[in-house]
Batch of 2 targets.
Target 1
Amino acid sequence: MAKKRVVIGMSGGVDSSVSAWLLKEQGYEVIGLFMKNWEDDDDSEYCSTRQDWIDAASVADVVGVDIEAVNFAAEYKDRVFAEFLREYEAGRTPNPDVLCNAEIKFKAFLDHAVSLGADLIATGHYARVREVTSGPDAGQVQLLKAVDASKDQSYFLHRLNQAQLAKTLFPLGEIKKTEVRKIAEQLKLPNATKKDSTGICFIGERPFREFLNRYLSYQPGPMKTPDGTVVGEHVGLSFYTLGQRKGIGIGGMKTHRNADGTSDAWYVARKDVVNNTLYVVQGHDHPWLLSSELHAGQMSWIAGTPPTDEALFAKTRYRQADVDCRQHTSADGFSLAFSTPQWAVTPGQSAVLYQGDVCLGGGIIDTSNAIA
């Protein structure tokens, strides 16, 4: 019987490298695919694509798999980056990793893998896939959190559908990150000690404001407190996100002092796009930073239909602990009501719903109701 062919996305990082080895150990015919998603400034000090390709090819050699590079830069610019810029221009803070997974890694990549004769695809994400074998949902494919809760990436994968998940393997879903590093060292992989990449793939480690400056028009405007007092000038609403503390530019201003003479830090609390005004508050737990409800649009449900249970758990940002909520779905999206007010709920970010370890899907936050 012929081996099943798996095409795995190999980024040059340790996670996808160990994933490729695990798949080969499990008896699959493995082909590596290195995706190039950005080429505007390939030669800049911040772009690691060239080194990543060298690392991926070196690992493929050690593991004993074929690898090819494919350029998805045009698709990425079209489907991910253009939306990223649109969201920032509208005053929201998007999460391009969510869009990249849905549009590139599990769409353009999947299509290309199928053209290579793949039966399945795989990535180095920390998540799990499970097929329901009995009951009314028999045959349905579920997305589950990873065993390593500290590395779980199901939040970024919540827009995947049944067809995509049915063809996907996540070899690291049952493994702790410490074990992945150990395997890489034992195999003497050339990237065994390579640090995990951080930040958005097309920005890399570059200063974020400097990058946005190249693509967005911006207009300075007033920075106000909730009572309307002007306390400074912002450099453009796109450069700020709700809950931001550093880089606001009014650190020396102390309008409110505590009883002991100290003063609370400033935080970005609201953006008024119509009037080009940024509102800032003092204190981490200021009422303007706490939301009891939110509304999300652009719904995407893994099962294909919205969940019927009203009492569920949600994340409104990555690495946040699950919080219980009640959800209600309508024609234009869904609303969540939290039992405990949530901090800095940010339009443009994803609200993702869970039932235990099962990721149900979610949507893009468009509004939230502060408790004051």
Note: The two ends are 65 Å apart (CA to CA).
Target 2
Amino acid sequence: MKRFIQNIKNIWKVEELRKRIILTLSLILIYRIGSFIMLPGVNADAVIAKANNAGSDSTLESILSMFSGGGFTNVSIMALGIMPYISASIIMQLLGMAVPAVQKMQNEGESGRKQINTYTRILTILICAVQAPTYITLYASSIPGALPAEQTSLWWVTSVSVMVAGSMFAVWLGERITDKGIGNGVSLLITVGILSRLPSSFLSEVASTSPLKVVLEIVVFMLIVLGTILIVQGVRKVPLNTAKRVVGARAVDDQGARNYLPLKVNASGVMPIIFAQAIMTIPVMIFSKSQADGGMIQYALGDPHGVWYNVLLAVLIIVFTYFYTAIMINPRKMADDLKRNGGFIPGVRPGEETAGYIDSLVSRITLPGSLFLALIAIMPSLAWQADIKSGFEQFFGGTSLLIMVGVVLDTLQQIESYLLNRHMDGLMEGSRVRGRRSPNELTSGF
């Protein structure tokens, strides 16, 4: 405890870090306030009555509300949250594989990154313009008495415009946090939305469960978080040798500085779960109005705690993990960069043989990573089977847990870098999970 208090004092002593943290917290507060401001003309009493009957929410509604910080179920100006921007970013990444023009922009450095960001924002606006009227039609109108009795064309234009502006304002807040604050702004906004539901869910669980079981649930939750941290930070270190370079009249050996190529066990992150859950909801949405044609599909896929739902979800996650890892990791490019920088893997020839070796390693370590993601995705269902309810079971795994762990670790790493640059003890000094990389890991260029 004494060391923790000293770390807080060290953070407060660094002026730049202090200003960044205060700015980050201020912008997050603005985002949280915006998630409670309702659309013009919406009946607040009807929305509150629906919120009090939260047990009637579907799983999809609960997930979307979690990612939007409650803005989705509040029918707020930020009901769409930051997710349209995430969707646009994913689309641009996929286009980078298939469209040569996007690939060219990705290889143009800073100027190409700015162009991609511009196209991503434009695509975000288009996605918002489609999602906003869909949200009003399918969700907001399903709340009795929430929308005005007379919905004029002006009201529709105003509501859609406000929702688009609210989502873009959330994107702007995220970018300001990234540039002027601490951590990845977009990820932080999603994490704050998830964490905002944790206190109420936990208190609801405590009120309906015996103290001994609550303690056991906390212990299990901490073990799951620990396992998630180990997998998220787990890497396969590939030994490297670096050729000597000539400086002046003498040769300098760089071998001691960088002699590892880290390959992450979970290179795909949380994206396979997001893809799999999105695909699982499509059949349910298509057949939701047709019980005759979609009765079996509704029965099999409509229950997120059912056996068939979780089996199919796990299979899709394993498939998407391999797919997204192939997008994120390019063995041929890594082999070319190694060859260009004078590095090579001992016992493996540079070029094609190195690319094949890296590809085989990635394929082998992707299997345990995909199995872990599948297990994490079905953990909420297992927790529900163990009678952990009241929304608290969603924090035992799935997308929410991976996002929380990843964002918290990334933010702590950035804070630690500020402290270490000023010769202060890091936040994770002496712990088994280090926030900074080992000095002999080759990280640049990949």
Note: The mean pLDDT is 79.
